[in-house]
Amino acid sequence: MPATQQSVYAPLAEIVRSGLREGVHFGTVVGLTASGEVAYARGDIQAAMFPRSSAKPLQALASLRAGAPIVGAQIAIAAGSHNGEQIHTAIAEKMLAESGLTPDALRCPTDWPMGTQARKELLIAGGEPTRLHMNCSGKHAAMLGACVARGWDTATYLAPDHPVQRMVREALEEKCGEPIAHTAVDGCGAPQLAVSLVGLARGIQAMVQAPEDSHEAAVVRAMRAFPEYVAGEGRDDTTLMRRVPGLVSKIGAEGVIVMAAPDGATVAVKMSDGDPKARSRTMVGLTALRALGVDITPVEDMLSAPVLGGGEPVGEIRPIAA
């Protein structure tokens, strides 16, 4: 059966308005215990999918392995999808400068800041979209830093056969435990590599459980220590990692999120409608984490969202029980 068929997905969240179900969000979710067993699954967790930016921790791992001279918050933004706030553009520019490059070396497209407030401030200031404001500029700066460190060509670093992209592919296949199912072009221009949802969960779990002196652990430590560089103010990733000690969270476009608890219990979610308002994937992921026994008390308020009528709550968006 083609992967586009609705049978791949299960009903995961519902929109209830004034007591009547108004809509349903379908998707796929998988939960791994700390020992790596599948203990929670809804929908086809083996179907190929694009992890989108949820793969950025693995891409950051590849950049580190390739020799990117990044530390601390620089690693966090390499693994992040930032708001385009001043702290984000400044650190991405600094990463480039430390490798002897300017923002002109970036091959991601120009873009307005992803963050609402950052976009508003740039507009008021009469600014223009730039490559630094593009939410993936930290990832690109890290890849370019690796290229400079290795003496690789910087003009073609996004080509699938470029050495840095081959290392990304190797990192994903190694950590996810499966071959890449399909290669596409991501929104930022980098290769986007398809794996299964359970493969994505295994990849992030492997990073969380890696030895403390490993590149994997360096990525995880940076994300935990600098959640504001992984996303930014008002974003779910930053909120989750600030509130839940030791949690790692990374959202991806088209309805993806992956979250891992300190012990390695990991969930991954893919919403079939792309979750354009980011209103269902997080609650679905947190529901799965709770089912695995993870304490999500600090973020219980994120398990539902209000439905408004006349400016007042008249219902809610909530997970559908398994």
Give a verbal description of the structure:
This protein is of the alpha+beta class and 322 residues long. The chain contains eleven helices and eleven strands. The strands form two sheets. Strands 1, 2, 3, 7, 8, 9, 10 and 11 form an eight-stranded antiparallel sheet that branches. A three-stranded antiparallel sheet has the order 4-6-5. β5 (182-185) and β6 form a beta hairpin. α1 (56-65) crosses α6, α1 (56-65) packs across α8 (215-225) and α6 crosses α7 (197-208). The longest helix has 14 residues, at 137-150. The radius of gyration is 19 Å and the shape is globular. It starts with 9 loop residues before the first strand and ends with a strand. Residues 1-5 have low confidence and may be disordered.
